[in-house]
Specification:
alpha/beta, Isopropylmalate Dehydrogenase, twelve-stranded mixed sheet, 12 strands, globular
């Protein structure tokens, strides 16, 4: 078994997270996966015929034996039924994230892979929650930037889970510069791209049409792009989003930076849904996630597809291994 040990949070207990987490952990061999969740819940949701035994996590174990999957037990608040959400378990979901990040920060584990959560249920419990990206930023040092990576495309976001009405005021030159710096740095250092080529989308139709369709493109985005280009970063824009993603343009770049969630992610998911990985850049820990939701309608039926989670685990493993090689190179 590989030396990499990853935390896999099991997400909304009523969704498919518990079953796909057990399924991937049962067969994955490039890293040891420590599931974070309620032990009995995971035992009850484990797909039939896996031939795997779930045991409590031990920080002293260096690797998992064949057929054994460790679980860092976080107790449910109330019993959970597949497909039936309960706000009483909202804090449980967040506790799994807390445990995963804390174990990484103390060095016990080396990265976090997250199964999907149900944001509305957490909010229904009276807990302000906009998404993994923002919550993990509160637990870990750094400024979070959401990026999804698929076989054909990487898309990073300047804003994440904001209502569309609040997006324009959030597009400031300072924020755009901040995001672009993080994207460039992490693609270079974590992904090993020596000089990332970055394409930046405009906010408005036709990137503002010279101010006739909005002022943000010329007043906020263009100066940010120009400032980084002067530093030698391979960057251009703002480009109209309706042409930024056409094949002959997108192949010229290592990443496209979109201004808001539904500007860039529909294109990426149309090209590679189930193959894309959600990565949080700019954090003090490595974090990847699936590109889908909780799928309450099929939870507990043994038909959930775990491929997206496996792809997310694979990328997290790659990122950890690269960071280990980088440390060896620096110290040798």
């Amino acid at each position: 078994m590989a030396a990499v040990k990853l935390a896999v949070t099991t997400g909304e207990p009523a969704g498919i997270g518990p079953e796909i987490a057990v399924s991937v952990a049962a067969r994955y061999r490039r890293a040891s996966l420590v599931l974070i969740g309620d032990l009995e819940l995971l035992r009850s949701r484990a797909p039939a015929g896996l031939g795997v035994t779930l045991v409590p996590f031990s920080s002293s174990s260096s690797a998992q034996a064949e057929g054994i999957v460790e679980v860092l037990h976080v107790p449910l608040a109330v019993a959970s039924s597949a497909g039936v959400v309960d706000p009483a378990n909202a804090r449980y979901v967040l506790n799994t994230l807390d445990e995963a990040v804390n174990r990484c920060l103390c060095g016990e584990l080396q990265g976090v892979v997250t199964a999907p959560v149900h944001k509305a249920v957490i909010n229904d419990a009276g807990i302000p929650f906009t998404g993994h990206t923002e919550y993990l930023a509160e637990l870990s040092s750094g400024v979070p930037v959401m990026m999804l990576a698929g076989p054909e495309l990487r898309v990073a976001l300047v804003t994440t889970h904001l209502p569309l009405s609040r997006v324009p005021s959030a597009i400031t030159e300072a924020r755009v510069v901040e995001v672009l710096r993080i994207v460039e740095r992490d693609l270079r250092l974590r992904f090993g791209i020596a000089r990332p080529r970055i394409q930046v989308c405009g906010l408005n139709p036709h990137a503002g049409e010279g101010g006739h369709l909005g002022l943000e493109d010329d007043a906020q985005i263009a100066p940010a792009v120009a400032a980084l280009a002067q530093e030698g970063i391979a960057i251009d824009g703002p480009w109209p989003a309706d042409t930024a993603f056409v094949p002959e343009r997108r192949v010229r770049y290592d990443v496209t930076v979109a201004m808001y969630h539904d500007q860039g992610l529909p294109v990426l998911k149309a090209l590679g849904f189930g193959e894309a990985v959600n990565i949080t850049l700019g954090l003090g820990v490595i974090r990847t996630s699936v590109d889908h939701g909780t799928a309450l309608d099929i939870a507990g039926q043994g038909i959930a597809n775990d491929h997206s989670l496996e792809v997310a685990v694979d990328l997290a493993t790659d990122l950890v291994l690269k960071s280990q090689l980088d440390k060896v190179s620096v110290n040798s």
